[in-house]
Write a structure and sequence with these properties.
The protein is α+β, with helices and mostly antiparallel strands. The chain has one domain: LCP protein (Aminopeptidase, 3-Layer(aba) Sandwich). Helix content is 40%, strand content 23%. It has ten helices and 15 strands. A hairpin with a 3-residue loop joins strand 5 and strand 6. The protein starts with 5 loop residues before the first helix and ends in a 14-residue tail after the last helix.
Length: 329
């Protein structure tokens, strides 16, 4: 895999040193703000019993090392009945994403898994991956994703897409590179670089009927949105600002459920590690597919086993700097 030029790394390290100093100073001095972050995180709904039996899982990372972090993000554009908990997903995962942070913390990979992917579900057989939620809830979904990517999931988060509106406004708008112009009701999204407001965010990430390839373009739009959102959040000036971090957590907490590992302490630690590497480069791609097929009465998405193996091998490395997804080569 190609590496960045040395002068680029040096510039990143200089920025990183300044950012880490700001993080440590801010956390040490602004105790009330750190407490506010903790209080906001405490308000997040928790996902109980999210993991499968240990015997079915990839081995944990060695203690005492800076290890990669893997977060399974399940998104829903409707939480069902008003007031129902986010954890009551049923089989309604409209987005399935692995957020991978390599050990070197220089990049972040957001990998979309098509919800109609045809996979082997333990105890069930071949079925759409979304069916894992119906058959065994979040633990079975974790088991299936871990087997697909060969990575241990550290934490799980379930997001109500409505939260994207609040988060978009909290960062002052999200700029995306929109591949395909489309309209949804009164909203029009032109082709090219556009800046989404909170009111735009939900129709942008949830629409699929406007496109000939449906879910495929919806996934691409979700990826474009997440790239823009993470580009705003992962700036050292944001990571190093506890007021900004607290505001983001406040904005998102009503729309988020997460496992216990997503704590205030873990958030501060990861922010510092990311800031120490400079501004992480964010890449998004879809777990490689081989097209669609009809199996019985179901339209399904077939995974490309050869290219999936390439992604698995890359995820095993301490760095993914310079990694190019198979479909983009």
């Amino acid at each position: 895999m190609p590496l960045r030029a040395s002068h680029t790394r040096l510039r990143r390290r200089v920025v990183a040193g300044i950012a880490v100093g700001l993080v440590l100073t801010a956390v040490a001095v602004v105790g009330t703000t750190t407490a506010r972050v903790g209080a906001a995180i405490e308000r997040i709904e928790r996902v109980p019993d999210a993991f499968p039996a240990e015997s079915t899982r990839p081995a944990p990372h060695p203690v005492g090392t800076v290890a990669p972090r893997n977060y399974l993000l399940l998104g829903s554009d409707s939480r069902g009945e008003v007031g129902s908990p986010l954890t009551s997903l049923g089989d309604r995962a409209d987005a399935i994403l692995l957020v991978h942070v390599p050990a070197d913390r220089e990049t972040v990979q957001v990998i979309s898994i098509m919800r109609d992917s045809w996979v082997d579900i333990p105890g069930v057989g071949m079925a759409k991956i979304n069916a894992a939620l119906a058959y065994g809830g979040v633990p079975l979904m974790v088991q299936v994703v871990e087997s697909l990517v060969g990575q241990r999931i550290d934490d799980v988060a379930i997001v109500d897409f409505a939260g994207f509106a609040a988060l978009t406004d909290a960062v002052g708008g999200v700029t995306v590179q929109n591949d395909v112009a489309f309209s949804v009701l009164d909203a029009h999204f032109a082709q090219g670089a556009i800046t989404l407001t909170g009111a735009d965010a939900l129709p942008y990430v949830r629409e699929r009927y406007a496109f000939p390839d449906g879910d495929y373009q919806r996934v691409r739009n979700q990826q474009a949105y997440l790239r823009g959102l993470l580009a705003a959040i992962l700036q050292p000036s944001t990571l190093a600002n506890p007021w900004a971090v607290a505001g983001l957590v406040d904005a998102m907490s009503p729309y988020l459920a997460a496992t216990d590992g997503l704590s205030a302490q873990a958030a501060v630690q990861l922010a510092a590690e990311l800031a120490s590497a400079g501004t992480p480069e964010v890449s998004t791609f879809t777990l490689p597919t081989a097209g669609t097929a009809t199996i019985g009465d179901q339209s399904v998405v077939l995974l490309d086993a050869t290219d999936v193996a390439v992604v698995q091998a890359a995820l095993q490395q301490d760095s993914m700097t310079g990694f190019v997804p198979p479909a983009e080569r």
